[in-house]
Every structure is written in C-alpha cells, then in structure tokens.
Design goal:
Layout: H1 12-38, H2 42-67, H3 74-111, H4 116-159
Helix pairs in contact: 1-2, 1-4, 2-3, 3-4
C-alpha cells in the first residue's frame, strides 16, 4: 500500500462531509446577514472565512477521493482536518462570546426602547454559534475516523514483509 493509495473509510464518512458542507453554508449565510445588518465587524468576517475554507477543504477531500485520485494526499487531508478543528473551535467560541455581548446590549436597549436590529443580529449570532459547535463536533468525528483509518493503513504497511534486494535469492541482483 503506497502513500498515494486512498484510505478505506467507513461509509458514513461521506454523509458527515455532506453535513459539514450544509452547516458551513448555513453559518456563512447567518454571518453574511449579520454583517450586512451591522455594517461589518471582524468576528463576523472570520465567520465568513471559516465556512468558505470548510467548503474548499471538503471539496478537496471529495475531489481527491472520488473524482481525481492522482491528487489524493492522505497527509494533506489529515492536516486540513486538524486546521479545520482549530478554526471551528475558535469560530464557535467567538460567536458565542459575541452573542453574549449582543444579548447584553439587547437587554439594555430593551429597557430604553432600543433597536430591533441588535435583537436580530443577536439571534443570528447565537444560532451561528450553536451551528459552529455542531460543525466542530463533526470535524472532530471525521478527524478521529480519518486518523484511525490512517493508523490502520500504516500498521498494515509496516506488517507487510519487506523485500531486501541483497538477501532475497530471487531478485535481479543475485541472478548474475
């Protein structure tokens, strides 16, 4: 088994990746609406970047696994999944913190007859944080699944008997 061979993954992996794409698109839409209502904010910009990066990463996995196996690299997929875990952990925690701040602002504004746009952004950001947490869990599951499959493949490669060209009687060097 060479390092270019495609790992055998459980059949549910494709459904997990599909769920990752769907949740990423939902979080992207929620953050775009929030950014449009507020007029821009750095946290929400990061909330736009991470779902787009997720779509690219899952797109690479699908393309390399099913459409173009010559572009498959198991180590690239592992690293990209690790990076995605960190990105989604950061995103959902930042969105949750931002939702808490907006909730406080909303409660103060309600006391004094504030804006309804803050309430809308608060709700959208809170939903984005929950979906971000779900996406984080999905990436943990796919990372663990992929890592276990990679470990099994590496163990199978090491257990396969290695041919030594200097001691093997039937090799081309010892025939002369």
């Amino acid at each position: 088994m060479s390092s270019k061979s495609i790992l055998a993954l459980p059949p549910y992996t494709f459904r997990l990746r599909l769920a990752q794409i769907i949740i990423a698109v939902l979080v992207l839409i929620l953050n775009i609406i929030s950014t449009a209502v507020l007029g821009g904010y750095g946290t929400l910009g990061y909330g736009i970047f991470t779902p787009i990066a997720t779509c690219v990463i899952v797109g690479y996995w699908y393309f390399a696994t099913y459409r173009s196996p010559q572009h498959y690299n198991r180590w690239a997929i592992l690293v990209l999944d690790c990076i995605s875990v960190v990105w989604w952990l950061a995103l959902w925690s930042v969105l949750a913190q931002w939702a808490a701040v907006l909730g406080l602002i909303d409660s103060i504004d309600n006391s004094y007859g504030g804006l309804s746009s803050i309430r809308t952004v608060h709700a959208l950001t809170a939903v984005g944080a929950v979906l971000g947490a779900a996406e984080f869990v999905l990436f943990i599951v796919t990372l663990v699944t992929f890592s276990m499959s990679l470990h099994r493949a590496r163990m199978a490669e090491q257990q396969k008997p290695q041919q030594n060209p200097f001691t093997d009687v039937n090799n081309e060097y010892n025939r002369h």
